[in-house]
Amino acid sequence: MLWLVVSCLACLFAGLVLLGVCWRRSHRRWVRILEFGFGLPLVVVGLLPAIWVGFSMSGDPSPRSLQLSPRISYERFVSNDQSGGAVVHWSTIDLARDPGEACLDVVLSEPGRDGLIEAEIGTGFVAATSATVAINVAFFYPIREYPHWSSYPAVGDEITAIGHVVSEGKLLGRPSDWGQYLMIDPVAGQAAIGPLPDTPPSNMWAVPGRERIVADGLVVAAGGGDRYPRTVVGVDHDAGLAHLTVVDGKQWGYSMGLTLLDVASLMVERGVDDALELDGGGSSTMAGTVDGEPALLNRPSHTRIPGRQRPVATFLGLVDRCE
Asked: Are 178 and 208 in contact (CB under 8 A)?
């Protein structure tokens, strides 16, 4: 809102200057200096925030549903709660359908032993792995958002992922102090959230998170906090479902995001037993394969530019080959 006020005032002042220029242009040399030295730059400075606000408001919050594959669905909806409306992207994976049928694959970004990995964007990960759906996962460092033209990392830059990744029982990366993980066994059709076992079984895939926000069907997230883009994973044990959830944010007039408490409440309302917070903010990304092509399913906000994807450390993807 402050940007919008500043832009309007700047445009108004610039307009007054240019009106004066039109009136006296042929008479005073200083007016020409004022026009080109102050008037035109003020118009540009004033219009940029207004353009940003208009672009931000152009996002599509309308409901949308896609059956990405036999076991994986996607929907977009607006969550109206205590912190206001926010656009939510929700993908459901039916792990329990035909357990033992080895046609649901987990694909992960795999960091080195020290956590080092090359940054990539969501649609790039989907293109490389043929993932039916994928979300960003681990927190990472270093990161620099501003200035926009020199933000870090770019695609291919080396960064450090925080937390272990488990791929077919192999422990990769470096540990974190949080110790909470989403663990998936796609063959047995099971998923769980909690600490890693001392020796992960060979049929386990796991990704790290930070805070457990739902436990045994109850909200355990801390209250307060700001509305923010979020990436969260949840498990419905009775139904054998895993839920991948991304909340758009930082986009005035479209979606400012949800507090951690509100997103935890949303998970419980939709039948989730356990949920885990993953990296959020400008990192929050959901991508998938739509009509055979990689597609961005949410509207990220890297460096507060609507629709701009942030290169991040790790992604979790599911590939559904089931009939």
From this structure: yes
